[in-house]
Amino acid sequence: MTTILVTGGTGTLGRLVTERLRAAGHEVRVLSRHTPPYAVDLREGGSGLDAAVAGVDTVVHCASSPRGGDEQAAGHLIAAARRAGVRHLVHVSIVGVDRVPLGYYRSKLAVERLVEQSGLGWTVLRATQFHELLARLFRTLAAPPVMLVPAGVSDQPVAAAEVADRLAELAVGAPAGRVGDLAGPEVRTLDSLARAFLRATGRRRAVVGVPLAGKAYRGFRAGGHLAPERAVGRTTFEEYLAVRRG
């Protein structure tokens, strides 16, 4: 079996990828800022990163932060992977990074380009937003008596577990370049998803759509982050909520 490094291996997605690869018998190293023995901040790089990738066949890059630093982190990871002779770099990105002019999306697109130009064997999978992300958003929006959501926006959430399944499959295969997107089973308006969240968690709130401004909002309204032709996910938002209870 191969030795695989999972960056962001304690996060929502990375933890699931790690579990699947270990269950399949692979040696998996978890890289995270605060988890020994590979406690490394990718934004800083350094000798700890070189130690983490030494002897590794495949890297699954799940680490990411909307607060910035993804491009710098990817640069350090790629440089270390080159030095170590890593065979395959698998990167998870987001559907719509090339269509929605959001700062975080631009950064994710830039990381895709770094991966493609890395000189390593590479695979990039884009996924739609996770059910977990929507649930966290709705918990915050449901705090006031009235739940305000962006008007005219739909989403196509997917189960993080299904994305983890696909990443684990890709990690043990040959480099495949840009593979087909992985999107959730349903395109739903945000207000319908918000009401599903309220029902599942026993909250009573009025849901009100609020128009926003800016190019990113227009990109979301236009559905740039959706992939209805790739609705290959199976778990609906209601099914996720029934298990997690919001």
Radius of gyration: 19 Å
**Overall mean pLDDT:** 96
- CA distance, first residue to last residue: 37 Å
CATH homologous superfamily annotation? NAD(P)-binding Rossmann-like Domain
The CATH architecture assignment turns out to be: 3-Layer(aba) Sandwich
DSSP helix fraction: 25-40%
Q: Describe the strand arrangement of the main beta sheet, using strand numbers.
A: 2-1-3-4-5-8
How many β-strand stretches? Answer: 10
Q: Could you give the order of the helices and strands? A: EHEHEHEHEHEEHEEHEHH
Largest sheet: 6 strands, parallel
Proportion of strand residues: 15-25%
CATH uppermost class: Alpha Beta
Based on secondary structure, the structural category is alpha/beta
How many domains make up the coordinates?
1
Q: In terms of per-residue confidence, which ranges show pLDDT below 50 for 5 or more consecutive residues?
A: none
Overall geometry: globular
